[in-house]
Amino acid sequence: MEWIYLEEITDEKITYNYFPEGKEKFGIISLMRKSGERVIDKLCESDKFKTYAFQALRCLEEYQKKNEFPEKGLIMWY
Fold first, then answer.
1. Residues 22-50: what's their mean pLDDT?
2. Is the pTM of this model over 0.85?
3. What DSSP line would sit under the chain, residue for residue?
């Protein structure tokens, strides 16, 4: 599980901070709104295999489809 928090929305991209397992260390991810390109701006040091970053990016793609960008979200899988 992880928490994501909205950092910034522009016409070009959506940026969120992601917190693996709800811990203090975090990474930063973005989704380019026009191209759909996924970007890991800063990989969280505890996310060595990028599992949490990719789960969060998948969530951003869903937000983009709905054009709804919550201030925070909880992502759970297993």
1. 96
2. yes
3. -EEEEEEEE-SSEEEEEEEETT-S--EEEEEETTT--EEEEE--TT-TT-HHHHHHHHHHHHHHHHT---SEEEE---
